[in-house]
Amino acid sequence: MDDIPEHQFELPPQPFKDNGDVRRVGFELEFSGIDLQQAVDTVKRVLNASIRHRTEAEVELISAELGKFNIEIDWAYLKSRATKESGPQEDRVWVDLLSRVAPLLVPIEVVCPPIAVTRLNELSPMVDALRKAGAIGTEESFISAYGVHVNVELPDLTAKTLGIYIRAYALLQWWIVDRHKIDIARRISPYIDLYSKAYLKQVLSHPNADMNRIFDDYLEHNPSRNRGLDLLPLLASIDERRVRNVVDDPKIKARPAFHYRLPDCRIEHDDWSLQVPYNSWLVVEKLADMPEAIADLSAKFLSADRQRPLLDISRTDWVETIDQWLKDHALV
Description:
By secondary structure, this protein is an alpha+beta fold. Helix content is about 45%, strand content about 15%. Strands 1, 2, 3, 4, 5, 6, 7, 8 and 9 form a 9-stranded antiparallel β-sheet that branches.
């Protein structure tokens, strides 16, 4: 196990996987304000990367230090048309036209490779350069709803570990939305729906759930990628057929990581960096490292719900409760 060097990003309480490797985190940034070519030129220059593959809608860059970066127009139709190697001349003209107007309608997306938590600061120059080039995030327009997705490897893939992270997030999801002031355009969009109260009560009531129960409960209540914390890629890495029997979505990419979709992208602000979305997840990491606290908070949540049998637990009251608890325990 290598010594951990100095870093700018705070490490999670468990920075290593069960095999001794440093855990990794991948980011996906959505923004507008610059076109695909400008984004490619910027990332290529800052990371000293080389182009390995290109279409009108997607470019693959290779950084010798960090790995493969994908930069793309986040528009499934355009990407599918652009991958056609041949076709009528009018098709190619149409794809070229769409690629030019797409930045006005859909975001550019930079998909970073999984990077060790000890090296995340190496992405900061890229973010700064994209900002200087004119990248604009969530606040660009009311309909933009651009965000940052954070893909976080787990320490291990046991039911015990997965369950404790799910319960930690379940206890915190309302607080995260309020504390980090998730933009209204994203909150009312269908892309980052929160877990229902029924699912929260289900997972908090069964702290010793085995993997079968974790699958059953999640797929029953969340048969969609569009969740603030999307578990489908993670579950698909454990049993892909079971996931696709319920949610046959080609966009689900199996990987042993949480797909945390909730954070805004505020790349246009000088004081914003990838530490902002990372730090909002870090609270989940810290609570997940406190199993006794999770048990106590779960009991409080369920007790408060039982006291309001006709109305369900008050979201406002719970946010106040969890906010004070986090402050009392110096987690924020």
